[in-house]
Amino acid sequence: xxxxxxxxxxxxxxxxxxxxxxxxxxxxxxxxxxxxxxxxxxxxxxxxxxxxxxxxxxxxxxxxxxxxxxxxxxxxxxxxxxxxxxxxxxxxxxxxxxxxxxxxxxxxxxxxxxxxxxxxxxxxxxxxxxxxxxxxxxxxxxxxxxxxxxxxxxxxxxxxxxxxxxxxxxxxxxxxxxxxxxxxxxxxxxxxx
Length: 193
Fold this sequence. Notes:
Layout: E1 14-18, H1 25-40, E2 58-61, H2 74-88, E3 94-98, H3 106-123, E4 127-130, E5 143-151, E6 154-164, H4 172-179, H5 184-192
Parallel strand pairs: 1-4, 1-5, 2-3, 3-4
Antiparallel strand pairs: 5-6
């Protein structure tokens, strides 16, 4: 079992979680939402020391499959769902977002994410946001960065530990390619041999 610590201090409201795929980010997001839900029901929650925001509502945005025959694109569907969340949420709500805008380019995802972050910051609601746009944590003093980590001796081995620190933007795909001999240099070397 891997335990993770979460905290928002002072004016902090948004936890931006980034890191490699399959590193425990989505599990952490689900746990964050479940802890708030259980606490709101008056149930005990797991943890050594827990102080939790009791929400009036919990809003989540996790990816959905694109509907075959649907009239809206995946991006349009995401934007509509996010707009509904932001219109209905209050400062007492809790928001959990997971990999929003993954269906678009990085530049578009960053631009759209900045707008959503601005709305969440103005709303002043607690939020955990799993995002590949790790720079979001730098855009507001109310946002903090958390990163899912990899083993010190092997960048391809996930620890499932998510720690509070600045995102490093390490290219984990490159580590995997190196491990399996698939970098450009490794392939070129094999072709010469």
